[in-house]
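Entry 0007
Protein: LysR family transcriptional regulator
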Amino acid sequence: MQALPSPTALRMFVEAAERSSFAGAAEALNVTQAAVSKQMASLEDRLNISLFFRGHRSVGVTPAGQAYLPVAKRVLALLESGLDDATALSSRRSITIEVDYEFLDFVVTPRLDRLCAQLSETDVTFLPTVPGRHVPQSDLSITYGHPRPGRVSAERLCGFRVFPVASPFLLETTSDPLKELPLLHDVDSYWWNTFLQAENITRFDQGTVLGNGALAIRAAMAGQGIAIGDDVLCADALRRGDLVRVGGTALHGRDDYWVSEHPDMLGDPIAASFRKWLKAEVAQLFENAQSATWKPAT
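Output (structure tokens):
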């Protein structure tokens, strides 16, 4: 394959051809006229065509040179465009965020469009976790219970209130939901025992046990029973009317959500921007939950 002309030679050719002058091209490119003349002679040898008529004090562009000029300009434009694209890609940052699985499902995922707008120059990877287990390499952490060990700038993101929730359509089938409707449990029945005692209700049926709170909430949204929810995970569903609160009791959660970061991210503007976005979204969550409807226990 024949060796292709260098971008330098093509740029000199375009300048010389458009000016019909090696001296003019040299001045435009801040090089010597001898350098332009040498590059043009080398280019003609490589292409095996004559690009210029050379007079004693002037040059002119040959028909072959006129035909080659738009080709050379297109090549230079493509090179510049490709460089711009490559530079834009190389300048993008990436960030990995480990997030409690349930928080990722109910809080982060429905807001990805707003996060992408906030971090428009950053590629974000979310990795779901469960309490007590962590991703080896992550830049930021949103954890439930405690801040991740070994992280810096640990900040309490929020606590929450806990209460039963159900589909409003399911509640239309009974006037006494906490006594008559199926109870949906996660692996820990602590909250159900606490709520039933608070409402002076005695039930001996265990109900359906699902693997975690998120599955129980999803089942409640599907009309399968009453689940234990909270004003973080259920805020959007409460606002939309997919869920309503059941009973008159709301208890404070036993743990909090925390956000922290890897020591290498300390002072990083991307980490700061993510924290700002996250805190604003969580504040809006509580407004949504507080405006939701209660279904009294009877």
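Curator remark: The chain is about 45% helix and 20% strand. Residues 118 and 273 are 7 Å apart (CA to CA).
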